[in-house]
Amino acid sequence: MTNALLARRRTALALSILACAAGAVSPLVLAQSWPEKPIRVVVGFPPGGAADQIARLVGQPLQEALGQPVVIENRTGAGGNVAGDAVAKSAPDGYTLLMSSGGMVSVNPHIYPKMSFDPAKDLTPVAAAARVSVYLVVRPEFPAKNVQEFLAYAKSNPGKLSYGSPGNGSSPHLAVEMMNSQAGTSTRHIPYRGAAPALQDLLGGQIDFLMDPGIGLPQVQAGKLKLLAVGGLQRSPLYPDVPTLDEAGLKGFDADTLFGFYAPAATPKAVIDRLNAEINKILATKPVAERIAALGGATAAMTPNQFEAKARDDFQRFGTIIRERKIVGD
């Protein structure tokens, strides 16, 4: 072997060792240096909805914890798919995050057969933020004083009652379809681009009821809406006297959904772990927990692995009702 060839091989070996060493320490280095610029949180739903409110609620203390601005950007459409696609195709560097309801991951693949991305492969769970229930609400003049009377009225007037939702496949939409399936009712769905405009039309009398994701609870407290039932398996601590639909006879009724933060796939684990730790600390603070409770939800601190496992469970649970009711995307 010539001296020149031996020298080249030694150089190549040295470079290989250096590359391996750099790869071994890069997560630590990244964790120490990140973030070095503003972080963008893309919200898949309009301002005023639950996802938007939770993103802003967590975003401010996250900005203080990380020492960089956290900018909230609303990109609506296709049940969160527009925002999901934008984040999935962003650089996996920890500077672009998604805040979405769990439906974008656990529901949309069932109702949009030609999605431009695969949520399970192209996004990685960062941190769950809140478990959000839905609440059956009507105007005070609605001809039913309780949930049993509401179900009886809906059953005796098939196709008469209309309801709004943030869009096809949203948790409020699926909740009503679960109710229709179990109670034998038939109601008319009117999709909106977000929960806030649906709430406004309920208040204005254009629709008859909502499975509200929590943003209408202030209207309940003000006496402008009447709360008949909770769509999860547990009563709300805010309204301990209001029954669940499970208690009203729709056994096992559970339309809760998990809102949380996601990042592009291949985002470094060190960044994911840092974000998860900081967000979980924020969720443990009293002001944030109380504000999420006021939205009708509950904080849901989880590890990324726990968050991913819950998404898989919800994928199976919601897929059943989607197939049964033949629900498709907008």
Distance between the termini: 69 Å
- Average predicted local confidence, pLDDT: 90
CATH architecture annotation name of the largest domain: 3-Layer(aba) Sandwich
CATH class of the largest domain: Alpha Beta
Catalogue the unreliable spans: 11-25
Number of helices: 13
CATH topology value of the largest domain: D-Maltodextrin-Binding Protein, domain 2
Report the principal-axis shape.
globular
Largest sheet: 6 strands, mixed
Q: Return the domain count.
A: 2
Protein described:
With 330 residues, the protein is an alpha/beta fold. Helix content is 46%, strand content 17%. It has a six-stranded mixed β-sheet with strand order 2-1-3-10-4-11, sandwiched between helices. The longest helix has 31 residues, at 3-33. It is globular.
Summarize this structure briefly:
By secondary structure, the chain is of the alpha/beta class. The protein has helices spanning 3-33, 50-66, 81-88, 103-106, 108-111, 119-122, 147-156, 171-183, 195-204, 217-221, 269-283, 286-294, 304-325; strands spanning 39-43, 70-74, 96-100, 123-132, 135-138, 162-165, 188-191, 209-212, 226-230, 257-264, 297-299.
